[in-house]
């Protein structure tokens, strides 16, 4: 099938390549001219045959809204827009309603996989009407990991981004647990090789995971994370997860504490935040601050 892809950054560029490897045609547009296949959104829409599917991988908020606004005027009834960025789930209903007034479908899709997705595949969580999802299904199949899992039609419009938001909240708490354990191991004289301890956990333990593998990888690059500043940003989804928990009276003590721990990293050079920063860099290519 043909796909229009708007946004060709760290995620979008690799997604374009993976979809092409699966035999589909991808027409990419980016404000970075070197990466783009066409010069404008209008060129992208004109290049695709109807009914069109246009997938957005642009920053949440104003950038997504302005792109939806422009596509609403360019696309035709029967086309579908997929928001694969990290939009807040509460924005999805508004985008769906805006596009539905023009006869255009809307699917929200949470995407996880970071810089590793090109080779390993992307975990996909999508929401929307079944008829709209069906039009995008060949792309979902191309992007997902091999095997039976890694993709889910999570429910109505908004469900995909809500599921991805909760995923990221869990990720916050898991990274915080690894970071706290690492700092404690580093603090005692009795443990002489913390890196080897982390390596040993990769087999036979209940905490073995890809996140643990990435922690080991970070320690192999910088054994004591001495080159990193103890500062870790938050993408916003951790905050949204806590806010949703408050709205629904669901207790999230671990996720909430992990979010607040990141805030504390902006006041002190936190050893734990060195590990969190290293993990975010490993899986997502997120920027780190060096000493």
UniProtKB/TrEMBL annotation:
<dbReference type="GO" id="GO:0006098">
    <property type="term" value="P:pentose-phosphate shunt"/>
</dbReference>
<dbReference type="Pfam" id="PF00393">
    <property type="entry name" value="6PGD"/>
</dbReference>
<dbReference type="InterPro" id="IPR004849">
    <property type="entry name" value="6DGDH_YqeC"/>
</dbReference>
<comment type="similarity">
    <text>Belongs to the 6-phosphogluconate dehydrogenase family.</text>
</comment>
<keyword id="KW-0560">Oxidoreductase</keyword>
<feature type="active site">
    <location>
        <position position="164"/>
    </location>
</feature>
<dbReference type="InterPro" id="IPR006183">
    <property type="entry name" value="Pgluconate_DH"/>
</dbReference>
<dbReference type="Pfam" id="PF03446">
    <property type="entry name" value="NAD_binding_2"/>
</dbReference>
<keyword id="KW-0311">Gluconate utilization</keyword>
<protein>
    <submittedName>
        <fullName>Decarboxylating 6-phosphogluconate dehydrogenase</fullName>
    </submittedName>
</protein>
<dbReference type="InterPro" id="IPR006184">
    <property type="entry name" value="6PGdom_BS"/>
</dbReference>
<dbReference type="InterPro" id="IPR006114">
    <property type="entry name" value="6PGDH_C"/>
</dbReference>
<dbReference type="InterPro" id="IPR008927">
    <property type="entry name" value="6-PGluconate_DH-like_C_sf"/>
</dbReference>
<comment type="similarity">
    <text>Belongs to the HIBADH-related family.</text>
</comment>
<dbReference type="InterPro" id="IPR006115">
    <property type="entry name" value="6PGDH_NADP-bd"/>
</dbReference>
<dbReference type="GO" id="GO:0004616">
    <property type="term" value="F:phosphogluconate dehydrogenase (decarboxylating) activity"/>
</dbReference>
<feature type="domain" description="6-phosphogluconate dehydrogenase C-terminal">
    <location>
        <begin position="160"/>
        <end position="287"/>
    </location>
</feature>
<dbReference type="InterPro" id="IPR015815">
    <property type="entry name" value="HIBADH-related"/>
</dbReference>
<dbReference type="GO" id="GO:0019521">
    <property type="term" value="P:D-gluconate metabolic process"/>
</dbReference>
<dbReference type="GO" id="GO:0050661">
    <property type="term" value="F:NADP binding"/>
</dbReference>
<dbReference type="InterPro" id="IPR013328">
    <property type="entry name" value="6PGD_dom2"/>
</dbReference>
<dbReference type="InterPro" id="IPR036291">
    <property type="entry name" value="NAD(P)-bd_dom_sf"/>
</dbReference>
